[in-house]
Specification:
CATH class: Alpha Beta
CATH topology: Chloramphenicol Acetyltransferase
Shape: globular
Distance between the termini: 25 Å
Number of domains: 1
Largest sheet: 7 strands, mixed
Helix content: 25-40%
Order of helices and strands: EHEHHEEEEHEEEEH
Length: 217
C-alpha cells in the first residue's frame, strides 16, 4: 500500500522543496559493534548477512521517512512496507546479482525466506536474479572485502530517488570487540542528519539486543 502525502499540510514541505531543487543527498558511516551478534549467529550456525539485511530493513520499516518515494503517477508518499533488495556475489565471474526477499518482523521467518531465495536464485547469473522486483523495495548491499571509513553512491535520476541506500563493509576486530562499517545514504529532501543518525543508532541497538529477536517466533 502506498500512502500519498498531503503536501498542503506536510510539516516538511518547505524542506522538501529546498533540498529537492538542490538535488542534495548525503551519506554517513559508522562502525557498528556486532560482537554479540556475530557470537550468537555462529552458535546457531546461522549466516551473518541475513541478520545484517534484517536489521537494516527492520529500522527502515519503523520510520516513514525511510519509505518515502513517488508512485507511478509522480505523487509523493510512503510505502506501508518495504522489502530488502540485496546483492549476491558470484566469485568466479566477479559479478553480482540482486535478489529481493519479502520482509518479516520475525527474524526466523525472514531468515528462512532469505535462505530459500538464496537457494532458488543465488546461482542465476543475471542482474535481477529473481525476476522483475516489486516497486516497494529498498537497496541493501555489502562490500565484504574492505573495512571502509566512508562510502558514497551517486545516482543520476534527477534527484527523485528518495529511499535510503544501506551498505555494509568488512567486519574487523578491535581489542576484544568486533565492528563492521555501515554506510547509509539518504536524500536530504526527506531525511536530515537526525534521521540518518536514528537509523545508525537503532541498528546498533538491534545488534546489542540480538538475543531478543534471533530466536523469537
Amino acid at each position: 500500500m502506498f500512502h500519498i502525502v498531503n503536501r498542503k499540510e506536510w510539516k516538511r514541505e518547505a524542506y522538501f522543496n529546498h533540498f529537492s531543487q538542490l538535488r542534495c543527498t548525503f551519506s554517513m558511516t559508522a562502525n557498528i559493534n556486532i560482537t554479540e551478534l556475530l557470537k550468537q549467529t555462529r552458535e546457531r550456525k546461522m549466516k551473518l548477512y541475513p541478520a545484517l539485511v534484517y536489521m537494516g530493513s527492520k529500522v527502515v520499516n519503523q520510520h516513514s521517512e525511510f519509505r518515502m518515494s513517488y508512485n507511478d503517477k509522480g505523487e509523493l508518499g510512503y510505502w506501508e512496507v518495504l522489502h530488502p533488495s540485496y546483492s549476491i556475489f558470484h566469485k568466479e565471474e566477479e559479478l553480482f546479482s540482486n535478489v529481493w526477499t519479502n520482509f518479516s518482523n520475525i527474524f526466523v521467518e525472514f531468515y528462512n525466506r532469505f535462505m530459500q531465495d538464496s537457494v532458488d536464485y543465488g546461482d542465476h547469473l543475471t542482474l535481477q536474479a529473481k525476476g522483475n522486483p516489486p516497486t516497494n523495495i529498498h537497496p541493501i548491499s555489502i562490500i565484504p572485502w574492505t573495512s571502509f571509513t566512508g562510502f558514497n553512491l551517486n545516482i543520476n535520476n534527477e534527484g527523485e530517488f528518495l529511499l535510503p541506500i544501506i551498505t555494509w563493509g568488512k567486519y574487523f576486530k578491535e581489542a576484544e570487540s568486533v565492528f563492521i562499517p555501515l554506510s547509509v545514504q539518504v536524500h536530504h529532501a526527506v531525511c536530515d542528519g537526525y534521521h540518518a543518525s536514528l537509523l545508525l543508532n537503532e541498528i546498533q541497538a538491534l545488534a546489542d539486543r540480538c538475543m531478543d529477536w534471533l530466536d523469537k517466533e
